[in-house]
Design brief:
The complex is a heterodimer of chains A (about 240) and B (about 625). With about 240 residues, chain A is mainly α. Chain A has 14 helices and 1 strand, in the order H-H-H-H-H-H-H-H-H-H-H-H-H-E-H. In chain A, helix 7 (about 90-110) packs antiparallel against helix 9 and helix 9 (about 130-155) runs parallel beside helix 14. The mean pLDDT of chain A is about 90. Chain B has about 625 residues and is α+β, with helices and mostly antiparallel strands. Chain B contains 13 helices and 27 strands. Chain B has helices spanning about 10-30, 45-55, 75-95, 110-115, 160-170, 200-210, 240-250, 285-290, 380, 490-500, 505-510, 520-560, 565-630, and strands spanning about 35, 60-65, 100-105, 125, 130, 135-140, 145-150, 175-180, 190, 195-200, 210-215, 230-235, 255-260, 290-295, 300, 305-310, 320-325, 345, 350-355, 360-365, 370-375, 400-410, 420-425, 440-445, 450-460, 470-475, 480-485. A 7-stranded mixed sheet of chain B has the order 11-8-12-13-25-22-20, with helices on both faces. Chain B has a 4-stranded mixed sheet with strand order 3-2-6-7, covered by helices on one side. Chain B has a 3-stranded antiparallel sheet with strand order 16-17-18, with no helix packed on it. In chain B, strand 9 (about 190) and strand 10 form a beta hairpin. The longest helix of chain B has about 60 residues, at about 565-630. Chain B is globular. The two termini of chain B are about 50 Å apart. The mean pLDDT of chain B is about 85. Classes of the chains: A mainly alpha (about 240), B alpha+beta (about 625). Chains A and B meet through helix 2, helix 8, helix 9, helix 11 and helix 12 of A and helix 1, strand 1, helix 3, helix 12 and helix 13 of B.
């Protein structure tokens, strides 16, 4: 109950300021530019959305921390967090409510990329099952990014610090699947460590889902990622409250 | 517990839980997944499941993968991981009938020797050039061996087929026998024109993987009874005896696959001046009895399915309406032979027609588009520029049958038998002074005059089997690697599989490549081309006319003194020259126009995708502000 109240309050607050619109507009335009110019969507001539989804993790890297940074930092800085804590909601409910609101908001932004889906269906006959899975994977990945951002935001009063810290941590989780990161470990680390590092990467799991197969392991990865960081958020808020 | 949630230790615990869960997750929850892809690309097909469940004898599969040496190749490692998962899925379906083990062939180890002895391919990587292995060796209880020498990541979509085929071959060591009678050198041979030995066509190799392929001797009374499927390629000048043998084979229920052609390009006549009829297959006697007829004088010109050919030498690519690239829209996808095939290329294809009063059922397998017209085959003989075929091309609106399946009741072409002449050594009289062979006549009497159910597939093209239409052959680390770019061999093998009565493998094979081109753009390109081709022709004619007139004027000037050229003539000359420049420019414009439509579509879509929704959102925001202000 408390969760849904917080969620609705937060979600409504997104749409009362033009900031949210600006955010969505930037997200849509950047995804369009990336897809069509860097991803050469039209020139590739293939009816799939690989050009679009390839850039999604990188877009998130900038935009999700921007949403997440205000989740708690702002409340702490302005002192409204004390007010929030006097309301009849638990910390867990507040954390969950704020997270869900932000997550839904990103979901809306993601849904508004529908013209690219219409486009690809107009141009050819894409595998819409794969596209659906990719969208789902994107949204799950956004949840992971957001949970990290939530925790970092709870730990600091400065939105800028929250933004940068979130970006750095998320970048590490994205880059873990990269060949150059793997290379750094190949010389000395045992294989299970290397495979373990790669299995911690957002990219590894997102790519797996974006093939069109929803594997329980990939779902669980995003779930574990999100839940652990949200629990950590609760702990951080509790610690700060005790201070 | 409560304390942990309020302390920094709590954070450490959460972090530890996160790491442990993430690592265990990869190992614990295996194989539960929802495949959302259209062709269920990542789910084992029913056919694979059936083959696995019907395994009778135990099989052993050994996957060789160089774990250590591939540490720097994450892409390959991921793929190897996927193969392992796939094998585990096989294992779970086959139970204890399948023993799977994984081996890491470390350089200079016994395992490496084993791998290379089994025929696995070692690929050198890295600075030290260590060889990596990534292949599979399967053995059955009689020690027959089947090998996948290297899993190439770019052939991922065929991997289930490769694996299932390997398992199928191991569990059914006896392959169906395909007997081949061919009027062209499908099996390679010596080319007298180039004075070089030629390798067998790649389709032969593809067939040999799956069938026991045997070239048959001509001039025998009977097709070898061990033959399960008879493959006839470009039957030409077959003797009466051979035709009789084929006739009887078919009527006795032997399955037959026939490739005939009104103009077989691979059949190189001794003289380049020979007429087109020299390259024509001839099986009309039998085909008529089976209920079909090959239009002998004509090939199909098909604009919609035509391919663009590169002319080389800096010339523009041109459309060749005799060279066809068909996609599933021309296939009878209800027939299992065509299921899942994506593209087949054909060249100078003939037309099949049902004979009046045929007692068989003729089902088309491949059809042309409606934008087609029969073209006299003789024109191909002296064809310099494929564009010339477009002259006088007028589509009839009819879809022509290019391949068909024939089933049902048919009768013999030799009901009275056939009299043949044979040369015989006279062996009865050892003392005879001359051991010279003598010619004797013999009557072959048919065993079967009528059959209630023959089973034949006829294809009106033989070029479909030639390498140039569907495959690229390369040397890769000393091995011959074939990369198909069309499903021609898939079609052949499907047809043979189906005729052999072993259709299980078909659905797996035909998962095919997953190219999904922009159909819209292609249609646009075609219609633009059609539109402008006519325009171009008109302009070209005008240009030629003008040039002729110019030449005329120039000559007039050459005859007399140039100064004498009248003012009127002078004017005319300038006018023609201007005209020529203008027409040339128009011609260039026409060519540019071809790409312009497509480019502008691209630009439009870019703009819509980048700006449309942001614009609408902005409008919405402004509108909401306005309304709110009004309300306030």
């Amino acid at each position: 109950m408390g969760t849904s109240i917080i969620m609705r309050r937060e979600l409504a607050s997104y749409f009362t300021t033009p900031l949210a619109y600006i955010f969505i507009v930037i997200f849509l335009m950047m995804s369009g530019v990336f897809t069509f110019y860097l991803g050469r969507f039209f020139e590739r001539g293939q009816a799939d959305l690989i050009s679009f989804f390839n850039f999604i993790p990188w877009l998130y890297l900038i935009l999700v921390p921007a949403i997440a940074m205000r989740l708690w930092s702002e409340e702490r800085k302005s002192g409204t967090i004390e007010l929030l804590m006097t309301l009849p909601v638990t910390v867990v409910q507040a954390v969950l409510g704020k997270f869900l609101a932000a997550w839904l908001f990103i979901g809306v932004a993601l849904l508004l990329t529908f013209p690219v889906w219409v486009t690809v269906n107009y141009l050819g006959e894409p595998d819409n099952g794969v596209i659906l899975a990719s969208y789902l994977g994107s949204w799950l990945m956004a949840g992971g990014f957001l949970a990290v951002g939530s925790c970092v935001s709870a730990a600091t009063k400065s939105q800028v610090v929250a933004f940068i810290m979130t970006l750095v941590i998320c970048f590490i989780f994205v880059a873990a699947g990269f060949p150059m990161v793997q290379d750094a470990f190949t010389e000395w680390a045992p294989l299970w460590v290397i495979d373990g590092i790669s299995s911690l990467s957002f990219l590894t799991h997102f790519d797996a889902v974006a093939r069109g197969v929803i594997d329980l392991r990939d779902l669980l990865y995003f779930l574990i990622m999100t839940v652990c960081w949200l629990v950590a958020t609760t702990v951080v808020i509790n610690i700060k409250k005790a201070d | 517990m409560k304390n942990i949630m309020y302390s920094k230790t709590g954070l450490v615990v959460i972090f530890a839980i996160f790491i442990v869960f993430s690592l265990l997750n990869a190992r614990l929850f295996n194989g539960v997944r929802f495949d959302l892809t259209e062709g269920k690309l990542y789910t084992l097909t029913d056919e694979t499941q059936k083959i696995l469940q019907e395994l009778e004898t135990p099989l052993t599969l050994k996957l060789y993968f160089s774990e250590k040496a591939t540490a720097e190749l994450p892409g390959l490692r991921t793929y190897a991981h996927r193969i392992k998962e796939l094998l585990e899925e096989y294992q779970s379906l086959a139970g204890d009938k399948l023993n799977i083990s994984y081996v890491d062939p470390i350089p200079f180890s016994e395992e490496e020797d084993e791998a290379s002895a089994a025929g696995l391919q070692g690929v050198p990587v890295g600075i030290r050039g260590d060889e990596i292995y990534f292949g599979l060796v399967g053995t059955n209880d009689t020690d027959s061996e089947e090998v996948i020498s290297f899993f190439q990541p770019d052939k991922e979509q065929f991997v289930e087929y490769e694996l299932t085929k390997l398992i199928y071959n191991l569990s059914n060591p006896e392959l169906p026998v395909v007997g081949i009678l061919s009027g062209i050198n499908i099996n390679g041979g010596f080319n007298y024109m180039t004075q070089q030995r030629q390798p067998a066509w790649v389709v032969m190799q593809q067939m040999e993987d799956l069938f026991d392929v045997r070239p048959l001797a001509e001039d025998v009374d009977e097709i070898d009874p061990e033959v399960d499927i008879l493959l006839l390629v470009h039957p030409k000048e077959f003797s009466q005896q051979t035709l009789f043998a084929i006739d009887q084979f078919v009527l006795k229920g032997g399955r037959t696959l026939v490739f005939v052609d009104p103009f077989a390009e691979a059949d190189q006549p001794p003289s380049p001046m020979a007429s087109a009829s020299n390259r024509r297959s001839d099986l009309s006697l039998l085909l008529n009895k089976w209920g079909v007829k090959l239009q002998e004088e004509h090939i199909v010109g098909d604009f919609e399915n035509s391919l663009v050919v590169n002319m080389g030498g800096g010339r523009n690519p041109v459309r060749h309406i005799g060279l066809l690239g068909l996609d599933a829209s021309g296939f009878n996808v209800d027939d299992v032979v065509m299921a899942g095939l994506e593209s087949i290329n054909l060249s100078s294809v003939g037309i099949l027609e049902t004979v009046d009063g045929a007692t068989t059922k003729v089902t088309p397998l491949i059809r042309s588009s409606a934008e087609a017209q029969p073209i006299v085959a003789e024109r191909l003989n002296s064809l310099q520029n494929p564009e010339a075929l477009m002259e006088s091309f007028a589509p009839t609106g009819e879809e022509y049958v290019l391949a068909a399946r024939i089933m049902g009741k048919a009768s013999s072409a030799f009901p009275e038998g056939v009299e043949i002449e044979e040369t015989q050594e006279v062996a009865e009289e050892p003392e005879a002074e001359s051991a010279e062979p003598v010619t004797v006549k013999r009557l072959l009497v048919p065993e079967v005059v009528e059959s209630s159910n023959i089973n034949v597939i006829v294809v009106a093209d033989t070029d479909i089997l030639t390498d140039r239409l569907w495959v690229q052959v390369q040397q890769f680390f000393g091995q011959r690697v074939v990369s198909p770019w069309a499903d021609n061999a898939g079609f052949l093998v499907n047809a043979l599989d189906n005729l052999a009565g072993n259709a299980d493998l078909i659905n797996i094979r035909s998962r095919g490549r997953f190219s999904r081109p922009f159909t819209k753009v292609e249609a646009l390109r075609r219609s633009a081309e059609e539109q402008f081709l006519a325009q171009q022709q008109v302009l070209q004619e005008q240009l030629e006319e003008t040039e002729a007139k110019l030449l005329e004027l120039e000559q007039m000037r050459g005859d007399a003194d140039s100064a004498i050229l009248s003012e009127e003539q002078e004017l005319e000359l300038t006018r023609f020259q201007d005209e020529k420049i203008k027409i040339r420019k128009e011609l260039r414009d026409v060519q540019h126009q071809l790409d312009r439509d497509i480019e502008s579509l691209g630009t439009e879509l870019k703009m819509i995708n980048i700006f449309l929704v942001p614009l609408l959102l902005t409008l919405l925001l402004v509108l909401m502000k306005f309304i709110r202000r009004r309300v306030a």
